[in-house]
Specification:
By secondary structure, this protein is of the alpha/beta class. It contains eleven helices and 14 strands. GO terms for molecular function: DNA binding; DNA-binding transcription factor activity.
Length: 303
């Protein structure tokens, strides 16, 4: 069997067909080959295994003892190949597994209700696990498979991740609902010194997403408080003299009211991020298609 490394799938398919049909003519017809082509492949197999493999008889071809020993092994080869092949069709209704998403509370409030409505209708057997967003561990979690998808902002996504733009968002400056400021017009210089609350969902610090905008205008912000979630911000604003810049899609909120400004921070993008290993996963593709349906293409803030 010194030529074992020269065996190809065509020869093994001929072997399987001959085992089934016990006749060269019928095996050739089954495979769509000529009799000569089947005989040529059989000759190569005989040379490789140093065995006749099939003997002629009045009842047709009879497999030799070696051919009978090889049959289950060859079947295993084709079963393994079939297991490697992608499914012909993805049906979400037949999915029974778990999909893990990392999301800030902004994404939980704005994106996930719409995604979950689609999932429950089309894939009732799919279970979603939503975990806290950890920017410092995002890439290792995606690489290890502990996380399937992240819903976040570009600044929080490390290099090496695959991304898909979902939509553009913008900030609205807000104050508490009973503040007299809500009926007035302000400039950036008016509000720069006002006490401000920021949301920092990934790191406990006093660095806000609108800092660069203030700096580009020649101002620094008077940040007096940082909270880890967008859900916590309105209550803190409502009980203080603070203002904040909140994403428009989590508004309106009865605890706060918009402040009229003569200028606004630039828009920013909301994206989905994942690891390269998931690119060809049918379930992953389907989840992304649902997100695309729910948030049809507009224009990215970076375009």
């Amino acid at each position: 069997m010194n030529g074992i490394t020269r065996i190809d799938l065509k020869q093994l398919r001929v072997f399987k067909a001959l085992l089934k049909e016990r006749n060269v003519t019928r095996a050739a017809a089954q495979m769509g080959l000529t009799q000569q082509a089947v005989s040529a492949q059989l000759s190569k197999l005989r040379d490789t295994f140093q065995d006749h493999l099939f003997l002629r008889s009045a009842q047709g071809l009879i497999p030799t003892p070696l051919a009978e020993q090889l049959e289950p092994r060859v079947n295993t080869v084709f079963e393994s190949i079939a297991a490697l092949s992608p499914p012909d069709r993805f049906d979400p209704a037949e999915v029974y597994t778990t999909f893990v998403i990392s999301a800030t509370d902004y994404a939980v409030a704005v994106i996930l209700p719409r995604l979950m409505a689609k999932v429950r209708t089309q894939a009732p057997g799919l279970k979603l696990i939503i975990r806290d967003f950890e920017s410092d561990r995002l890439y290792p979690l995606l690489t290890s498979g502990d996380l399937d998808l992240a819903l976040t902002f570009p600044a929080f996504v490390p290099d090496g991740c695959q991304t898909k733009w979902l939509f553009s968002e913008h900030h609205i400056c807000v104050t508490r609902s009973d503040s007299p400021m809500q009926n007035q017009q302000f400039t950036i210089s008016d509000i720069a010194d006002l006490p401000q609350i920021i949301v920092s969902p990934t790191r406990a610090n006093l660095i806000g997403s609108a800092d660069d905008w203030f700096a580009s205008k020649g101002y620094s912000r008077n940040i007096v408080m940082s909270v880890p979630s967008f859900a916590a911000a309105p209550a803190c604003i409502a009980s203080t003299d603070c203002i904040a810049f909140l994403p428009s899609r989590i508004l309106p909120n009865p605890l706060v009211r918009p402040i009229q400004l003569d200028d606004s921070p630039p828009s920013f993008d909301v994206i989905a991020a994942w690891h390269l290993r998931s690119n060809q996963d049918p379930l992953h593709k389907w989840i992304l298609s649902l997100l695309q349906q729910e948030f049809p293409a507009q224009q990215s803030a970076n375009q």
